[in-house]
Every structure is written in C-alpha cells, then in structure tokens.
Write a structure and sequence with these properties.
Blueprint: H1 2-12, H2 18-57, H3 59-69, E1 107-109, E2 121-124, E3 137-138
Antiparallel strand pairs: 1-2, 2-3
Length: about 140
C-alpha cells in the first residue's frame, strides 16, 4: 500500500509550480541586467579611448599644417583644412576625419580657449553630447 501512495504523490508533482517558474525568471532577469550593465560600461570606456586616440592622432597633421602655413587652420575651416590645403597634398586621408564615437562632429577652434592664443583646441563632446559638461575629451 505504501508503494501506491508514493507513486500517486509523484504523479501529481511532475511539473514546476508557478512560483518556481517566477523565481527562475526573476533570477534570469537579474543576471541579464548585470551583464548588460557590465557591457555598457566597457563600451563607454572603449568609446572614450577611441575619441582620445583620434584627438591625439590629429596633432601631427595640425602641426605640419602650422609649419607649412604659419598658423593652425582657422576655426571656420576646421579640420577640413587638412583635407583640402592650397597647393599641397592633403595632410590626412579623406576617411580619417569622421564623427566621434557618439556620432557627433569633433569640435575645433583656433585660437584655442584651453591651450591659449597660439594653440588650438580639438575635442569630442563626450558621452552626453553636450558642451561644457565636464565629460569632453580634448587635447588639453
């Protein structure tokens, strides 16, 4: 008789209860959220590094332009002056100047506010894509 009781109990318990399913889903949501947050942080750091690399890589072409013309490109021309110099080969490849990692154009002024009247300022607006918020990535 005991054999029948244990067998009948097992037949009633062959699936998961709603509570067990909800607990498993809750755990999966928490693990997914932790993974997404970790990936977002890594992506943001990579974008910041990419912007810093671009800003630093423009130093040589801009300094070469300075040697050839006596001044850095004016603000109105910006980095486009490196692509279309008068009577000279371009200072950079046409694909070298593109939007920053957040899809915004790089900012350029000469004379610079951060680097003084004899220098230029080149920067990305950063992750928030807004000026003067402290997260800009520049040559200063």
């Amino acid at each position: 008789m005991q054999f029948r009781r244990s067998q009948s109990r097992r037949s009633h318990r062959e699936g998961l209860t709603l509570i067990e399913v909800m607990i498993v889903l809750f755990i999966l949501v928490i693990l997914s959220t932790i993974g997404v947050v970790a990936v977002q942080g890594t992506l943001n750091q990579a974008r910041k590094r990419e912007a810093a690399i671009f800003v630093n890589s423009m130093k040589t072409p801009l300094d070469t332009y300075l040697l050839d013309h006596g001044n850095y490109p004016p603000t109105e021309q910006g980095l486009d002056a490196l692509l279309n110099p008068m009577n000279a080969d371009p200072y950079v490849d046409k694909n070298a100047i593109k939007a920053d990692p957040w899809g915004m154009p790089y900012q350029y002024i000469f004379p610079g506010r951060q680097n003084g009247p004899s220098g230029y300022d080149l920067w990305s607006l950063g992750p928030d894509m807004a000026p003067d918020t402290g997260d800009e990535i520049g040559n200063w």
